[in-house]
Amino acid sequence: MSAACPKFAYIGLPWRSGIEPVEVKRELMMSREQAGAKAGQMANVDASTKRPTIVFGAFDRHNFGDMLFAHVVARLLDERCAGLAPVFAGCAQRDLRAYGGHETAALAQLAARWRDEPVTLIHAGGELLTCDAWEAAVMLTNPDDAQSHIARHGSRAQDRRAWARSVLGTDAPAPYVVGRETFPHATSICFNAIGGARLDEIDASLRAEVLARLRTADAITVRDARTQAALRAAGIEAPLVPDPASMVAALFGERIAAHASAGAVAEVRRAFPRGYLAVQFSADFGDDATLAGIARQMDSLGAASGLGIALFRAGAAPWHDDIAVYERMARRMCHAAVRIFSSLNVWDICALIAESAGFAGSSLHGRIIAMAYALPRVNFQPADSCKQQAYVSTWEGADTPGVVPLERLHEAMLVALQADRDALRQQASMLARRHEAGFDAIAGVVRT
Asked: In sequence order, what are the residues at sequence separation of 6 or more whose Cβ sits closer than 8 angstroms to the Cβ of residue 385?
């Protein structure tokens, strides 16, 4: 790093004074022993419930998009099905309320308890159809331990299956796709705006399992045309609706505005009086050459736009974002206005994007929140950008920069910043209405 290049600073160190960024990882995961300390005790489960309603998804780990799904579905259910008290469930029992998420029950425990009950099960959304048991188990481990588990179990399929079973409590090959094999007496099983952009490419046995479970569902909507086409080819019709996070501004605008006016986001706004770009990228961009390329693009963007660069994490679970990678990139930058935003609270993250001049990153949900707030946005290409490409090609206009190679980021972001804001607002409103209309059909099934 040149001696002329400034040091970066942190904004929004979370939860307690003096916490070091490396310690954040240790606080994200509750051990299985802690989570299940009292046998049979499950998150927000009312033993007197006559007709249990389960909202299920991958919001048992820190990924801000998945964590938002639970909020969106709960609010839409409350508006349409008065009196329901949903139980939030994932593959593991976790408590992410400190980060703006939910306390989740482990689905395997709920299945043992409610197998013969008239359960309503709603898959809340996300790229669930292609997540296998190994991937799910790794993403539910403590980030500090993930690499050792991968090294110990990752080389042999039999070891991967056995270890995943020990973590998830199930042999299911696609643990986030649940049908009547788990709840044979379910009143309804619904899939809300789910994704599976690589469904036609995954292992044939896994795909067959996923399709078999989908065929037992009472309602399915999907969030991109590629997933829709894959299901149609298998004889499953699924209407197209935008991602649940398209509703975030409409449903939670006041809460997000409150987070924008205080705390970590207010610090960012004070640090960048001329505005800032909300920037994110996953840990798989972490080799030195790629980080140098990102730093050059950020320097060029900062110089051309006059905006600050606020680096934030969209997820802190394994295989998501890593603050140490941001540190290494920021040290390569010469643009003076760069900060690392440390808060992992989902409402802080939404507020950071909402108050920005635009979003640039690899996260699909970084883009979707920018879309919801009618902001300029660009994705730059991770190693696997299939779901980003699928969503962009389904919902973005031809004139909007989509998923671009890293070397084109500076150019694409400057184009995005010139977008017609009225057109962006109209699009944001349309996407929210489309998701709400799609959810109405699911709520109709739940009410019957």
From this structure: 362, 379, 403
Which residue type occupies 312? F
Q: Which two tokens stand for residue 262?
A: 């205080």
Map tokens 């307690």 to a residue: 16
* Contact residues for 31 (Cβ-Cβ < 8 A; gap 6+): 142
Give me the residue spans of the domains in the chain: 28-245+433-447, 247-431
**Over the stretch 268-295, which tens digit does the pLDDT of each residue have?**
999 999 999 999 998 888 899 999 999 9
212's enclosing H/E stretch is helix 204-214
Q: Exposure pattern of 396-428 as b/e (b: 16+ CB <10 Å)? A: beeebbbbbebeebbbbbbbbbebeeeebeebb
Match 């390329």 to its residue by tokens. 293
pTM for this prediction: 0.89
| Tens of pLDDT, residues 139-163 | 777 766 656 766 677 667 777 788 7
Please name the CATH architecture into which domain 247-431 falls: 3-Layer(aba) Sandwich (3.40)
